[in-house]
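Consider the following assembly input.
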Amino acid sequence: MKFDILIAGVGGQGVVLASRLLALAAMKAGFHVSTAETIGMSQREGSVSSHIRIGDEVSGSLIPVGQADLLLGLEPAETVRNLAFLKKGGQVIVNTHEIPPASKPPGSPAYDPEGLLSFLKASCPGLLCLDFTKLAGEAGTPKAANVAMLGAAAGTGVLPFSKETLQKVLEAEIPEKYRAVNSTAFESAMERIS
Amino acid sequence: MTEKKLLMGNEAIALGAIEAGVQVATGYPGTPSTEALETVIRYAERGGIYTEWSSNEKVALETAVGAAYSGAKALVTMKQVGLNVASDPLMSLSYIGVKGALVILVADDPGPHSSQTEQDTRAFGHFANLPVLDPATPQEAYELTKLAFELSHEYEIPVILRTTTRVSHGSGDVELGTKAEMEAGQIEPVAWDFEGFTKDRRWTIFPRLTAERHPWLEGLQVQLSERFSTLPYNTVSGKGKIGILASGVSALYAKEAIRGFEEIFTLFRIGTVHPFPEKAALDFLKGIENLIVVEELDPYLEEEVFKLIGKKHLAVDVYGKKNGYFPVSGEYSVGLVLDGIDKVLEAVGEPSRLPHASPVVLREELPPLPIRAPTLCAGCMHRTVFYAFKRAAKQFRKEAQVGQKEQTEQAMQATQTAQEEQAMQAVQTSQTDTIFSGDIGCYTLGNAHPLNMVDTCLCMGAGVSIAGGLSRTNPEAKHVAFIGDSTFFHSGIPAVVNAVYNEADITLAVLDNRTTAMTGHQPHPGIGVTALGSSSKAIDIANVVRSCGVEFVKTVEVESLAECVEAAKTAMEFKGPSAVVFKGKCVGITKSDKHCVIDPELCTGCGFCVKQLGCPALALPGGEGGEGGEEEEGEKARILDNCSGCGLCAEICPSEAIKTEEVLK
């Protein structure tokens, strides 16, 4: 068994936490796991991504191009930026919530989230699109968009572990203060998808 | 079987050190090494481990050396460029050696992701004659840390544990030994059972002692090479006719690249890279005619294997960086290794080709994507200070231009050729401009558009001295050196002393946000808190600068732009070294109860706030226009949730349309 997940987003969106939750669930299910995160300078509002490699063997932590089974995109442009990692037939779940870049350095192309979303729709059959930030906001906080997207991933049934396993990890890892909000976000996203 | 834990490589190293009985741990923060010492700090109190964030890497190493001279087991952590700072004690220490144990964690950064160099610590180990271990996963990092302590104790030599970003910052399932299997509260305090310092001439380096010790050090290289050849951290898999030699995470990339084609290859993975395990390598090379070397950064293994081939007259063709089969720089990946191996297969006449994955979309087919460069956080005090200096410099430029206009006109009349005219204009720019020297930290991001306030950046503490040098060769320009609080203590002070001693006409701008922000908010000597969180004497930066002899020293709380501009201007007007210490809060660790709001009635949609500041809390609906942008005139800016109400945008808004409000968050 081998299952590679890539999470893409902008610094501050909770990509590292989402990656940790998936890795813990994979370990609970008895797999080896290795992850690679963006930590440091790039976290400051820059593009960030996490690679989560799950399998029977220990692998290097970077997913090879064209091999990710699942791409969780917390923001449209960052999803497209990492699309080459997705294998043919891989699943994409994208948060349609826009985060415009903080500045536009000379020569940087314009931010066109609608264009990017149509590109995703055309390139990825079975694309799941939803404003997870809005959904998480309705559950209590827009910051739980990352956990909502995990709920959506669980809802698709593509993950190599059960949604109960992931939920148990969530309960154990998320501080009590935020637990209720996060599990509401998780469950409501799961229901919306399945 | 023990339960497995999900650990970051750096955490695994810390637990390996604790399992090995570390008693003293020191370091200076640096991505990607920081979490190793942070993890030891978490266990320090319960584990009875002395831990400190030192003022720089040289000091950290020397502190650990003192402990190891006393027979204690010591760990020191740093990033690769930190090793450059610590290289002075390190090079001498090779001759002296240690008594207890000394393990030096050095994290390399292929790419680089967050470093100023792509240097290779394996080569540094070779240079310093010190053993280097090179793990590929968090599990190996844990095990090799323990081995490093054993080897250091046994051979009385410091051992370098070298990681790369993907090992230090990657996470994986790690099976821990019994002692390290510590849930909160279960860890036993380490016994302080070392014998203490014994006076002996061996601890005092002298030319004669060095001469005596050098043969020992060279002999040790041979002994260690033989020992390494017997260790299980160097493994051979497969029986194919093409050899692959690799270390660190590259070995895993190679293993994955050849999956399904293992019968063609024999893979030799090296965990103990220096001294090169010659005997084990010779065994592996039996029957191998073609050898592929896969390694990030320097061609270290490649050169070692070339030496061996030469020494033993082996008939082996080597395919690596030196003959262009693999890139000489940058981070590797499975795809890149696959391409390299395929090129070799073709070159040696092997019909098979490794299968390439087929992505949904090729990178080249992606639509144009906006650059999302890292930026200073919304509300960061550095933005206000940078903007203040930008304004101050602009005022100086205007004044200087008015004064120069007459002179220039006279000069222009005398000008003969277009070339001379150009030269004249270039001189004019440097005469009226201010040169801003930057340094290492979050504030290096001041270089980004639209601030563009970092004209030079080299290494920790260099900004102040570079400004001094620039002031000699560009005497008509103003010279400002920005330095962060932690960097000031790290290596800024000697440069300040030099500026005073040699009368450099520079302005020092200390960006004091009371934390080591970039690496994750570690304390430093200026804030009166130790690594363990206990209070200590806070060293006041303004007082340090004053005591160095700087005559103009001003401290400004970063609250209003106008005050900062005023302080910047007065300091820049001062002849000789001047300093302003800008004090503020790091928004990464403080909560704000303020938020800015735009009055849509007053906002004219000029976009000035967005275009001047590059604040991530300010956005135009279509993104910032910038040069050649497609923004529609009259689009009104929005303030996003990440606003912390610093009020900088309110202060610069030409229509006074922005207000700061108190909010209950």
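The helical segments of chain A are 15-28, 76-81, 113-123, 132-139, 145-156, 163-173, 176-193. Ask yourself how this observation constrains the way the partners meet.
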